[in-house]
Amino acid sequence: MRTFVLGITPVVLLLSVFSATAEQRWRLIHEAPGIGIFPEAQLINKGQILLFGGLNKGIVTANTYILDAKSEVIRPVMPMNQPRYLTSSVVMSDGKVYVIGGNISSSHQSTNKIECFDPQTEMWEVVGSISTARAQLAAVALDSFRIMIVGGRIGIDNVVNTCEIFDTRTRVTLLAGDFPYVTSLSQLTVDSAGRIIAFAGRIGGPGSYRSNRVWAYDESTFTWDPVGTTDSLYYPTMVTTPDKQLIWTGGSASENSKGGKYVMTIGRYSNGTFKTYGLLLENRCGHSAVNYLSGSILVIGGNNDISIQYKSCEFVDVLTGVSTPAPPLNIGRAFFKAVSVGSGRDLKVFAIGGISSATETSTIEVLSGECETTVQSVPPSRFTLRGSAYLLDTTIVLTDSKPFLAGAAWLKQKVNIVNDFTIQFGFRLLDGTDNELRDGGPQGADGVVLVFQPVEPAPLGDAGKGIGYDGIPHGLAIECDAFLNAAFSDPSGSHIAVQGGDGTRLRAVHAEPYLLALGYANVPNFVADGSEYHVKVAYANATLSVWVSKDQNFNDPVLSVPLNIPQLLQPFLATDGKAYAGITSATGFSQQQHVLTYVRVESCSDDLTSAELPESSPASGVEVFPNPLYGQSTVRLRFSAPALPGTVAEVYSRTGNLVLRRDAANHTEIDFEVPDVASGVYAIRIVRNGELVNTTLLHILR
């Protein structure tokens, strides 16, 4: 983990560096609304993960997201044309993702449609169909252009043995040789000889017969030939290692888990037979498993045989079959997706969706490799000062004790707010007076605020009760409020508030949709007597915690609030996962001097001193309003900086048709007239010289 100290202290600031090692653990990083049990996830280009489909609280979703593995930023893209779960998906050698069949409702209604996601356009297109609408089918790439599709389930009990081959070039599906028996939820993979291997499917509902036979497809005869056996008859988890070994873990001897039917065995495919050569630490089914560091597999979560979801994980040594404990999940989960990205110290594993404690979860966790911790002292010159703020020796005065001032100090470099981070800062208050506008607390107003926002490098908000941030672009604010403004529903003259934007602007009013959390019981009185107050703000496991102290004794937080900061900052957060961070302050009728004494930033992110302000680009933030669009006919796009030459904005329908295109070069705002566009979800794509740089969604409701 990299740690940065942005020091503003009354001593000469010297560079110091040390290194340490961070312990591996799972971190809750996101929610992907709609994604629940049985989602789909595929690794696409440039270390990005495509998430789509799933069932959550009885609703099947078409929602689609792209999760950038490096920055851990997630963003919505155009949804599928049909919602679906219990489907099957395949990523082909050209990077396109195909999704086949699946249930489109919780009442087991299925589809026969095949859709294709193109990572270049970030659009879904219906490209074909299978012979019969069905779910719980299996699919695997037969070669660079063809997909083998096996079995499936129609409705509740009608399981089929149909096998088909879809050709992505002709978009035609042809029947292949039938599977030897009806099967659904089969395991389907390709062995080192290039043969398609199928096993471990079911032939009906709960309690139905299971076969322990392993089958290989012979394309020359269009038949399935028996090649071996396995001792897991239902729902094991398969991993293909980089050297093409097929490793299987867990599973069940029956679909019904009662009576100890789940197994602990670890198997390796060899000469047509899965040979057990190790045991898991837990009997588990409905888990996920991925390749981990060289020579090992990570087994994640799953159910035990009394249908309780595991948090536990295991490392399996591929050579020996020996399993050892791995860091546990934060949330027990089963029937989810896991994806590993990268290698070595850059390796990350993502656990996505699933069922947890008898209800679906849309959360995402990441297990990341180790990163270095460094500490740097950065001089005040690394801040951009706005409004009334100025340097005084080695501190920053945000406001003097004069009426109606607003000042801000913004870091010139962005801070990574996707990974866990801690920011600590100190401030002093002096020369306070209420000027007869008494609030019942200590003299003076109005306090200091830590602000994150991804749109503008150094905005300045309103004076007075706006505390220097009210009215700036959408973001997140942590107030140390030193005045009771009844009009803004302040609870006391000294309190901590966590405020979020409304999608357009940040506001200081303590009411929905802005107020996220409020704490005042353990907050010291903010008195303008020169005392130094220390504030610590920590973000970990999708929880924001705030401490306030006069002696840097940070025991119990003043408040802790579950919060997904990257999701809150969408759709403006860039793919690098970084936002602008600043400290703001203001005075009104009541006034005091606000002095910022130091700022420390601790984050597993890039070196702040080497990160320069980004080149003006529409990728740094795109704001769409109004959104949703109701009766209006004009949509406005606002960029966080003038768009570069060669930039255009395009509007596409969910079927992939271009609706509108506008030149955006050198503009910070452009308007679209959409008087005749029908209701629906549209993708707005920002393209520069043919390269996609940003995407956001527009909802039109008429």
The gist of it:
With 702 residues, the protein is mostly beta strands. The strands form 13 sheets. Strands 1, 35, 36, 39, 44, 45, 46 and 48 form an 8-stranded antiparallel sheet that branches.
Amino-to-carboxy terminus distance: 49 Å
Radius of gyration: 28 Å
What is the number of strand segments?
A: 55
Per the CATH scheme, the topology name of the domain at 3-15 and 374-610 is: Jelly Rolls
Low-confidence stretches: 1-22, 606-620
Major β-sheet annotation: 8 strands, antiparallel
Proportion of strand residues: 35-45%
The CATH top-level class label of the domain at 3-15 and 374-610: Mainly Beta
What helical percentage do the residues reach? under 10%
Number of helices: 1
State mean pLDDT (0 to 100 scale): 84
Q: Structural class from helices and strands?
A: mainly beta
CATH architectural arrangement of the domain at 3-15 and 374-610: Sandwich
Describe the structure.
The chain is mainly beta and 702 residues long. Among the domains are: 3-15 and 374-610, Jelly Rolls (Sandwich), CATH 2.60.120.200; 618-700, Immunoglobulin-like (Sandwich), CATH 2.60.40.1930. Strands 1, 35, 36, 39, 44, 45, 46 and 48 form an eight-stranded antiparallel beta sheet that branches. Strands 34, 37, 38, 40, 41, 42, 43 and 47 form an eight-stranded antiparallel beta sheet that branches. The protein has a four-stranded antiparallel beta sheet with strand order 2-33-30-29. It is elongated, with a radius of gyration of 28 Å. The two termini are 49 Å apart. The model is unreliable at 1-22 and 606-620 (pLDDT under 50).
